[in-house]
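Task card 7
Instruction: Convert sequence to C-alpha cells.
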Amino acid sequence: MLNFPRWAVAGILLPLLIGIFCAVPSFLPDRVVEQMPKFMQTRVNLGLDLSGGSHLLLEASTQDVAKQRIANMEEQVRTELRRGDTKIAIGDISSRDGKLSFMVRNPSEVDAAVERIRPLTQGAGLTGQRDFNVEVMNSSTIVITPTQAGIDNAVKGAMEVATEVIRKRIDEMGTREPTIQQQGANRIVVQVPGLQNPKALKDLLGQTAKLEFKLVDVNANPAEVAQGRAPVGSEVLPYPTNPAGPPVIAVYRQVMVSGEDLTDAQQGYNQQGNEPIVNIRFNGAGGRKFGQVTSQNVNRPFAIILDGKVLSAPNINEPILGGSAQISGSFTVESANQLAIALRSGKLPVALTVVEERTVGPQLGADSIRAGLTASIIAVAAVAAFMFLSYGRFGIYANLAVAINVLVILGVMGILGATLTLPGIAGFVLTIGTAVDANVLIYERIREERRRGRNVVQSIEHGYKEASRTIFEANVTHAIAGGIMLALGSGPVKGFAIVLLIGIATSVFTAVTFTRLLVSYWVRAKRPTEIHI
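Output:
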C-alpha cells in the first residue's frame, strides 16, 4: 500500500498538475487569456448570476399556430382537388371560426372530394385522434375542423423547432453558455450571460424571419391598394420604404421562392453606394426556381418580403442565375447582420413575444463572486485549522490535498467548458467542507489500528485499506444524488450538481491517493516509530 513505483507516482501527479495548469487561465485577465494558444484557454464560464446578463421569457401564441395550420390545410386542399385529370370544382373556401368550409359544385363529387382530403389529415401524436375532422354538411358542403389534440401536437412540435432556432441564433452571436429551455407548453426561457443590453437579443429572437419572393401586381389600382383592397389572387402588404409614396403595395399571393431554399446569408455592402445589404445563396432547387422565375419576368418588379413586410421591390433587369441574390432595404450594418443571422438559422415556426425581461448588472455579479469567495476562504481556513489541530502532520497533508482539490475542480470545469453559478459556489463550499471527510475516516482508522498494537507502517496500511471501502460506498451514494440532480434539474440545480459531481471525483482522488503518496514518502524518509494523530 505504501510502495509507489515511478509510473504510479507519475500517474498520480500528472493529472493533478494538468488540472492545476488548466485552472490558471480562470484567474488571469481576459486580455491575457486571449493572447494564449487556443488549447490553453480553458476558463470557467460564469453564469448569469455571476457575470451579469439578460434573462428573457418568450411566449408563443397558440392562436398563431392554429391559424398557420388552417392556412396550410387550405393550400393543400386547393392543390389536391386540382390534381390529376379529374379536377373537382369547388366554391370559395371560408376560414371563419377557425375551420375550413367550402361547397363542392357537383354534389355527385362530394364523396370523391372527401376521399382526396382525408389522407391530408394525420394522427395527433399518440392520442389516437386525427389532427383534423372532415365532415359533410347539407350534402354538398365539406367542413374541415382542427381537433384540440392536433393543435396541442402542432404547438409541441413548433416549440421544439423554435427552441432549436433560438439556440442557433444565439450561437451565431458568439455568446458562450446560454441557457435555453422550454417552460410549460408555450414558453421558452433564454438566459445569456455577459449581455447587458437585451435590445439586440429581443430584436433577433422576436424576428420570425419568414422570407418570401413574390411578383408585384402592377395591374392593381393604386387608389384601391391605398385603401387596402387588392384584385383576386393578390394581397396588400405594408411597404414602409416605398419610393412611390404609399406605404403599401399589392403583390401576387403565389410565392416565387421562399427562405426555406436558402443555404447561406451574410452581411455585405452594395458596390454602387456602399450601403449595407444581405447576400443570400440558394440551394440547387431554389437557385433553379429563382433563375426560372426571373428569366420569365424580365422588366417586372418583384417584392422581397420578410415577416409579411416588404423590404424592397426592385425591377428584374435581367435573369438572376447562379443561385445567389442580394437583399437591400435601408439597412444598418447591425440590422443587416441580424437579418443574416436570422435567415441562416431558419425561420421561427411561431411568433414569440417577450413576457418577462430581467437584466442582471455586472456589479451584482461581482458582489455574488465576492460573497462566494469570502465564504470559500472562511470555509478553507476553518477546515484547515481544524485538521491541523486535530491531526498535526497528517492534517497538513489533508489541507494540501484540499487546496489542490479546489484548483483541480476549476481545471476540470475549464476543460469541460462548464458554467459556474452562485449555487455552484455553494457546491464548491460544500465540497471543501466534505473533502476532508475521507481523511478523517482514514486517520481515525489509523488511530484505531495503532491502539490495537500494530506498528506504524501496518497501522497506516490498514487504515488506508479498510477506510477506502467506506469512503467509496459513501461517495457512490453521494454521486447518485448528484447525478439525479444533473439529469432532472435545470438552471441553478444543474450548476450545483456539476460542481458537486466533479468535486466528489477529485476529492476522493486527492484525499485518498495523493495523501497516501505523501505519507509513504514521509514514512520511508523518517522511519518513525510513533505517529501523533
